[in-house]
Amino acid sequence: MSRVLVVEDEMAIAELIALNLRHSGFDVVVAHNADDAQAEIDKVLPDLLLLDWMLPGQSGLALAKRWRSVARTKDMPIIMLTARAEEVDKVAGLDAGADDYLTKPFSTHELMARVRAVLRRKAPHALDAAVEVAGLRLDPATRRVCIGEQEVKVGPTEFKLLHFFMKHPERVHSRAQLLDRVWGDHVFIEERTVDVHIKRLREALVPAQRAQLIETVRGVGYRLTQHVTDAVA
Ligand code: CA
Questions:
Q1: Number of domains in the chain
Q2: N or C: which end of the chain has fewer CB within 10 A?
Q3: Do residue 72 and residue 138 come from a single domain?
Q4: Last residue within a domain, chosen from 81, 102, 122
């Protein structure tokens, strides 16, 4: 599921944006000031940033410029939110490195259209279609895993892990590769963490009788097999 960070000091606007994004299947985190935003980015790099121009103590424009100058955040998609509709401001926003620009007040429809357009251009993985393996269906848009009509409850990290496996069935992935591809920017995570989440993922798949989908390849890593059938009682 794609993660969107909303940096907006007006609570009502932040909540409205968060509500709409969550409704469309996004994982949303809200920060009300520059320090909180930086702390969130340090924890997890978002797939998209919605950044208000006018923030207490710090302008969104200055923040965008700063993030563009740092290797870790230089490609992070940014949509600026602003009450200023002057063309000169629009140009300043784009010059600071914003990928797009939304002028308040904006409609939910326009917000979602721009979010999708920027993601399509800069982070197409965030808009992935549903995948199905061995009767198990995973939909990134709704963040749901189902087997038939039955929903399978998985945590956020296990969801990402399962999604990656389902997109690359039968291939063996080392722990380092999984960390790189699934955790992405989490620099400080040990390889042992992968084992912990694999265990949780298998446990989550037990009620659906799909735990055996995730195979351990001794000395190499893990793989998802497509050849699983319902266990005979
Ligand atoms: Ca503001």
A1: 2
A2: C
A3: no
A4: 122
The predicted pLDDT at position 190 comes to 86
**Cα 16 to ligand 1 centre (Å):** 14
Gap from CA of 9 to ligand 1 centroid (Å): 5
**Residue where a domain stops, chosen among 104, 122, 140:** 122
CA of 10 to the centre of ligand 1 (A): 6
Ligand 1 center–CA 32 separation, angstroms: 9
3 residue type, one letter: R
Distance 102 CA to ligand 1 centre (A): 13
- Total-model pTM: 0.62
**pLDDT (mean) for 87-97:** 79
- What is the Cα–Cα distance from 148 to 135, expressed in whole angstroms? 7
One-letter amino acid at 68 equals R
Stated as kind and residue range, the H or E segment containing 31 is strand 27-31
Q: What is the pLDDT of residues 158-205, one digit of tens each?
A: 999 999 999 999 999 999 999 988 887 656 788 899 999 999 999 999
Domain containing 199: what range? 131-231
